[in-house]
Every structure is written in C-alpha cells, then in structure tokens.
C-alpha cells in the first residue's frame, strides 16, 4: 500500500513573500515619515507666518469684482460665492469649447479624407498649424494681438446691424419673450421629445423587422413647426433686443467679453485640430471591405459615410475623443492668463493673494479639476459602452 | 447571339495629365466643383494679404514709427530684441556658454535623425544623462572657473529649452518607476503609484506649477529655500512623469508574458529582468508615444510664464508691452515670431515621430 501523494506543503512565509512584505513596510514607513515631515514643516511655517488655516475664509467678504458672472455677485459677496462663480464660468467655457471643437473637428476630419484635393490639403494645413503651437500662445494671440487691437465702439465692425465686434467684445441680439413665452419653451421641449421618441421607435422597428418608417420629418415639425404654431396662437410677443450705440458704448443685446471670445477661439481651434486627426484616423481605421460592400449594395458616397463608415469609426473615435474633452476642460485653466475669471484666476489668483491661504486655495482648485475630469471620464465611458454594445 | 458592344462605347475621356487630375480631384461633380470654387475664392482673398503683411509691407529695420507707417509686420522689433529673445537676461559676455550648450545639443541631435548612423543608443544615453549635467554646469557656472549666472537672469529661448529638456529627461525615469510601480505585485506600492498617476493626470499643469511655487516653500523646513526655477522644474518633471508613466505602461503591457517567464527562468531578479529584458523592448515599442509626449512637454513649457519666469513666450510678451514699441503691429509680430519658433520645434519633432513610427512599424512587420 502506497502512501497517498501529498501536494508539496505550501509555506506561507516563503522568502519571496517576506521580502515583498518587508519592502512594502519600509515603503509605507518612509511615506508616513515623509508626510509627517511635510505636515510638521507646514504647521511650523504657517504658525511662523501667521497664516490662518482651514476653510473658514470661504464665508468672508471677498471685496473684489468679477468681470463675468452667471450668478449674482458683488464685491460684498463671500469667497465661497466667488468660487462658485468661477466654477460656473469654467464649466460654461468648457461646454461651449467642447461644442465648437467637436463641430470643427468632425468637419476637419471629414475634410481630411475628402476626395477634393484642395479641401483635404487645407484641412491638413489648418491641423498642422493649430496643433503645433502652444495653446497659451494662441490664447495670447487672439486676445492681445487681435481682439484687444480692434477699434473702439465708434468704429466697430458691424455685420448687418445685428452683430457688432469691437474692443469691448462681441455684441449680439438678445431674444426677449414676454410672460407667455414659457408656452413656446414648453412646445419646443415637447417637440424635441416627440422627435426623439419617434426616431427611437423607428430605429427599434428597423432593427426588429429591417424596415422602419421614415422619421426625419419629425425633427422640423418638433423643433420649428410646433413652437411656431404656439407662438402665433398664443399671441406671445418675441422680440430681439438689438445692441445700439448710445454715447460711447453699445447698450442692449448680449455681450461676449473679449476674454471669453479669445478663450473660446483659442481652446476651440486648438482642440479641434486634435479632434480632426482623431476623426480622420477613425474613418481610415474602418475596414476597406465595408466601404466596398456598401458600394456594391448601391449606396451613394454620402450614405456610405453616414450609415456605414461613421458608426463604425465612432468606436475608434470615442476613447481618444474623451481624452481631448478632458484636456479641453483642464486647459480652460490657461484662460486665467488672459484674465478670464475662472478657477485659477479667482481661487489660485485673487483669493490666494488676498487671504494668503495657499494650501486651501490650491486644494480647492485641484478638487474642482479632479471632479470635472472624473465626470467627463464617467460620461464618456458610458457613451463608449453604449457604442460598443449597441452599435450607433 | 453575339453583339458587338464596342461599337457603342463613347470616346475615351482624358484619363491622364493635369486636366484629368483636376477633374478627378477638384471637379468630380457639381457639389465638389462648388466647394472647390468657394474655397479657392477664400484662399485667393486670404493668402495675398497675409503674405503682404508678412513680407511686402513688413519693416525690416527701424523704429516703431516706421512699423506703424508701413503697416506690415515689424521684424525690426524682433531683430532689436533678438538677444533677449534667445538668451533672456544672460550677461552678454557669458552668452558663448549658452551657444556651446546649444551646439552640443544640435551636434548630438543631427546624427539621431540620420538613418545610417550607428550607435544611436550611446547618443541617446549621453543626451539623457551626461548632457543635462554638463549643460547645467556650463549655464549656471561656479565650476571650471566660470562665473555664476543666477537663474533669475535665465530667459528666452534658452529657458524654454532648459525647461523642455528637464521635463523630457526628468520625466522619463519618474515615468518608468511609476509605471513599474503600477504593475507591481505589491499592493501598497501599486496603490500609491496608481493614485499618484491618476491625481496628476486629473489636474492641469498650472495647478501643479502653482503648487510648486506657493505650496512647496510651506512644505520645506524653515530657512531652507529652493530656487524659483528649480521649483518649477520639479513641478514640470513630476507632472510629466505621471503622463509618461501611462505611455510606458502601454509598452509594458504589450510585452508577451513569455518574456517575463523566460527572464525568470534564466534566474534573473526583478531589476535585472526589467533592466535588461523587459524595458529595452517596451521602451522601443513606445518611442512614437514618447516623442508625442515630448511635443506636449515643449508646448507646455510656456506655462512657466504664469508663475513669473520669462521663457520665450514670456519674454516676447514683456517685449511687446515695452512703451517704446507698443503698437498693434509689434504685438502681432511678437506673437507670430514666438509661434513660428514653437511651430518649427513641435512640427519637426512630430514629423520625426511619424517617421519613426513608419520605420519601427516596417521593422516589426519584416
């Protein structure tokens, strides 16, 4: 009778494991010592320089004005309020920049693969110029060399008496509705929902049966016809406040400050060049056989691009596109250099100088950027998941 | 029943020559023709005024008043400030030291670009280790009997190169260590490296530079102070190290498991395996990615002007604000000049990266 073969005894304390544990213990110990060292130095330094610590300053009176604010803000408002003003400004700039960069970037990407030699070349030139010049330099160029050098209000550049550009900024007509204006907004929202629902239903049906009802006409109906009917029927008055030259300046209308315009142009053009390259490589990454097969089925060039190539290219495009959106949101911080009131200029600039609380100010700024990065990453991951899973 | 189709074929259209090329590439159908004509009109309207501004109406010598009178670019401003744009406030008698540093860099970069030169590894090794030390000794002085030039006097293109090269050279070892740490088996080290990388990737470089310029002095013992430039350089190197780590990690992940196993079977320890087997292959794989990160680093060097250092852009900005030159044409010229400088650097580097990508790709498929 032979003894059963036992598996070799597993020793927990192998040399390797002990070594690994020792290395980690030493590492953690060193890290703890480093943090203690920095903490001790910091408290000593703060005490010596008489700087307060903690976030108590957020409720104190800020005492400075902000040139652009979407929230009510005066110099009597608190530092905390100023922080939120900066957050909203940065988010608005990021959102507008993302829209501009995406529209331009997709246009550029399509132009790069265009059969039209001239258009493909021009798109290449644009991309190579804008992506190889530092963003900060582009911002300076738009702000100091172009927008600030524009003539004053009296000699403004005027487009059809509606859009006015001078060294105070870009003036546009502002839509104004009276009390019953909400009816139009509700109809617009309802129309949008309707068009979306019809499109989704049509697509579901097409996926199930292979034949879907035509649905494109729901969009003009929902977005234009319905609100327009409501506008006529409800008798609401919609008017545009047109900027007018009164005295030395234009009054009325919407004003986009030169800081905002320069930041938007700089960010939008810079990131659009990167997006253009991403879109191009996405389109070229789609298997050539797909185009040939679609062509054999009798689809036209536009339909091939819209129905066959782009939906597949999106799978390649979305992950690097997310990186570019992230980069755009982080790069809004550079607008601080042209006095656009965002996080860096308000929190790490004015607030830090006035209160001297460097630790808290920088931490606040970093927390803001981290939460923006995480949110964009989460949204794009979700989108990526949808595209990978369900196709278009 | 056979039909002779050839009889009905139309005469052949022109299929070669410039006319055919234009029909194929510019005037395919009415839509393309319309697009071409619109774009052509815009180009004809836009390009001659631009060239006129750059060359024809430009002022090559003179003062601000000449520039304002001519209405074109004010190259006179650039040539008047040339010394400052290149050397910053570096003493005129000592500028040869900067020239020697530039020359050493140029002499080592040229053979790197030529395909037939052998021993590129040695040149890269020299550039990444010995060169920064030599350059620092030359620029700062205090050794070999060279007088000390304080970093406060460094500026212009020279400072841009100093920040860029420190960023490139410093971020590589930091990136490699962080990438190895992120793939380590030890949970404590892995967690730390992951957190470190993700933290720095989630924030913009400006916050890190602010951290280096206003928070770092608070962290250090009382009475111990670091040079302003040095603090900025630390910030740039650590920030880009975190970006570099992700590039290197991509390479590490692409190395097949068999390589690790073979190295272990050959009795190699961790550092030996990484240093002699894994990293040489992994870094080779990610060379294009590394060069792209370098382009980003060069573009990001401009941010140091926000914490009060005068790099090329910073010194141009200070120059166009000078009361003697203040005018629209000087402002435009200054920024266009700086843009040209950065564009040449970044464009050539990105072209080089594409060339490498093609070459390495060829090598892999052979």
Automatic annotation (TrEMBL), chain A:
Ranges of residues in domain ABC transmembrane type-1: 87-380
Entries under CDD domains matching the protein: TM_PBP2
Pfam entry (one): BPD_transp_1
Record's keyword annotation contains Cytoplasm: no
InterPro entries: AA_ABC_transptr_permease_3TM, ArtM/GltK/GlnP/TcyL/YhdX-like, MetI-like, MetI-like_sf
Source domain of life: Bacteria
Residues annotated as transmembrane: 21-39, 82-111, 123-145, 180-200, 221-242, 262-283, 334-352, 364-383
Membrane topology, from the record: Multi-pass membrane protein
Compartmental location: Cell inner membrane; Cell membrane
Primary localization: membrane
Family that this chain belongs to: Belongs to the binding-protein-dependent transport system permease family. HisMQ subfamily.
Name of the featured protein: ABC transporter permease subunit
Organism field: Pseudotabrizicola sediminis
TrEMBL record, chain B:
Domain (ABC transmembrane type-1) ranges: 157-346
Residues spanning the membrane: 34-56, 68-90, 96-114, 121-142, 154-180, 192-220, 273-297, 303-321, 333-352
InterPro entries with a match to the protein in the record: AA_ABC_transptr_permease_3TM, ArtM/GltK/GlnP/TcyL/YhdX-like, MetI-like, MetI-like_sf
SUPFAM superfamilies linked: MetI-like
Keyword field contains Membrane: yes
Location(s), subcellular: Cell inner membrane; Cell membrane
Membrane topology (UniProt): Multi-pass membrane protein
Family: Belongs to the binding-protein-dependent transport system permease family. HisMQ subfamily.
Protein name, as recorded: Amino acid ABC transporter permease
């Amino acid at each position: 009778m032979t003894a059963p073969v036992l598996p070799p005894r597993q020793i927990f304390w192998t040399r390797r494991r002990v070594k690994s544990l020792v290395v980690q213990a030493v590492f953690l110990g060193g890290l703890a010592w480093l943090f203690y060292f920095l903490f001790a130095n910091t408290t000593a330094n703060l005490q010596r320089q008489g700087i307060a610590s903690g976030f108590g300053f957020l409720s104190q009176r800020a005492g400075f004005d902000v040139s652009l604010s979407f929230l009510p803000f005066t110099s009597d408002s608190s530092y905390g309020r100023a922080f939120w003003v900066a957050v909203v400004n940065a988010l608005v700039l990021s959102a507008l920049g993302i829209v501009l960069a995406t529209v331009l970037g997709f246009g550029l990407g399509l132009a790069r693969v265009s059969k039209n030699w001239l258009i493909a070349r021009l798109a290449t030139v644009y991309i190579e110029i804008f992506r190889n010049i530092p963003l900060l330099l582009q911002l300076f160029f738009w702000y100091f060399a172009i927008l600030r050098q524009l003539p004053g209000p009296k000699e403004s550049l005027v487009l059809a008496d509606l859009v006015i550009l001078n060294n105070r900024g870009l003036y546009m007509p502002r839509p104004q509705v009276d009390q019953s204006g909400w009816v139009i907004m509700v109809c617009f929202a309802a129309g949008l929902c309707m068009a979306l629902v019809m499109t989704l239903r049509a697509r579901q049906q097409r996926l199930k049966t292979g034949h879907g009802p035509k649905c494109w006409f729901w969009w003009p109906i929902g977005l234009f016809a319905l609100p327009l009917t409501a506008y006529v029927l409800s008798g609401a008055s919609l008017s545009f406040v047109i900027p007018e030259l009164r005295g030395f300046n234009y009054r009325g209308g919407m004003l986009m400050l030169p800081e905002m315009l320069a930041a938007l142009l700089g960010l939008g053009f810079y990131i659009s060049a990167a997006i253009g390259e991403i879109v191009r490589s996405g389109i070229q990454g789609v298997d050539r056989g797909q185009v040939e097969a679609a062509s054999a089925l009798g689809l036209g060039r536009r339909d091939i691009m819209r129905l066959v190539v782009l939906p597949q290219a999106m799978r390649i495009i979305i992950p690097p596109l997310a990186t570019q959106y992230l980069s755009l949101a982080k790069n809004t911080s550079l607008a601080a250099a042209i006095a656009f009131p965002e996080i860096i200029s308000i929190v790490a600039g004015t607030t830090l100088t006035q209160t001297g609380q460097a630790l808290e100010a920088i931490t606040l700024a970093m927390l803001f950027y981290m939460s923006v990065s995480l949110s964009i990453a989460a949204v794009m991951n979700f989108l990526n998941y949808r595209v990978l899973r369900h196709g278009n | 029943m056979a039909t002779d189709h050839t009889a009905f074929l139309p005469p052949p259209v022109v299929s070669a020559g410039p006319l055919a090329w234009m029909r194929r590439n510019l005037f395919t159908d009415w839509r393309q023709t319309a697009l071409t004509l619109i774009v052509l009109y815009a180009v004809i309207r836009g390009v001659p005024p631009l060239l006129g501004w750059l060359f024809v109406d430009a002022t090559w010598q003179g003062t601000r008043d000449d520039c304002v009178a001519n209405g074109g670019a004010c190259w006179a401003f650039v040539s008047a400030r040339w010394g400052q744009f290149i050397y910053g406030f570096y003493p005129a008698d000592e500028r040869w030291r900067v020239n020697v540093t530039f020359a050493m860099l140029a002499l080592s970069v040229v053979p790197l670009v030529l395909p037939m030169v052998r021993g590129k590894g040695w040149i890269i090794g020299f550039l990444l280790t010995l060169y920064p030390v030599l350059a620092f000794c030359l620029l700062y002085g205090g050794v070999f009997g060279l007088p000390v030039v304080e970093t406060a006097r460094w500026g212009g293109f020279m400072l841009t190169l100093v920040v860029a090269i420190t960023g490139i050279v410093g971020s590589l070892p930091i990136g490699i260590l962080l990438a190895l740490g992120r793939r380590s088996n030890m949970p404590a080290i892995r967690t730390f490296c992951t957190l470190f990388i993700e933290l720095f990737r989630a924030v913009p470089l400006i916050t890190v530079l602010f951290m280096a310029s206003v928070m770092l002095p608070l962290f250090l013992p009382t009475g111990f102070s670091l040079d302003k430039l040095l603090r900025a350089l630390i910030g740039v190197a650590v920030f880009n190290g975190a970006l570099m780590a992700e590039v290197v990690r991509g390479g590490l992940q692409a190395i097949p498991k068999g390589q690790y196993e073979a190295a272990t079977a050959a009795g190699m320890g961790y550092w030996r395996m990484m240093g002699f087997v894994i990293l040489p292959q992994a870094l080779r794989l990610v060379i294009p990615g590394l060069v792209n990160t370098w382009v980003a680093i060069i573009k990001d060097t401009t941010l140091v002007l926000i914490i009060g250092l005068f790099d090329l852009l910073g010194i141009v900005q200070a120059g166009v604000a000078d009361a003697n030159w203040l005018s629209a044409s000087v402002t435009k010229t200054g920024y266009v000049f700086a843009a040209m400088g950065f564009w040449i650097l970044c464009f050539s580097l990105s072209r080089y990266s594409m060339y490498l990508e093609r070459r390495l790709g060829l090598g892999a498929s052979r």
